[in-house]
Amino acid sequence: MEIQNSRREAVVGTAGCLTAFAGALAGIVLWAPYGRSGLLHDFEVGPSNWNVLLVGLPLMVLGGIAAALAVFALVRGRWKPALGLVAAVAVLAAIGMGVDALAGSPRPDCSDPC
Fold this sequence. Notes:
- This protein is mainly alpha-helical.
- It has three helices and no strands.
- Helix 1 packs antiparallel against helix 2 and helix 2 (51-75) packs antiparallel against helix 3.
- The radius of gyration is 19 Å and the shape is elongated.
């Protein structure tokens, strides 16, 4: 009986880790277009924005992990941890919007000096 329970816990733990990994990959995929435009500027347009990599990528990865684990908790019927994870996603989104707002307006992309 004890072996059966420990196997079930191992399967659930492995599924949770795979869910977190899938959420991290989803966060990276969703960050990629934003990160590419922030990091890969032409020489004439202006310097690269490294805050996109240093701040944006960790926020998106953590948000993806938290969102995936919230769905995993909901599927397992655990409402309180899911609610906490949804709150964590909301906080991460607010931090990301705040950082984006503090960065200022985007520079115009034009070929002539603006």
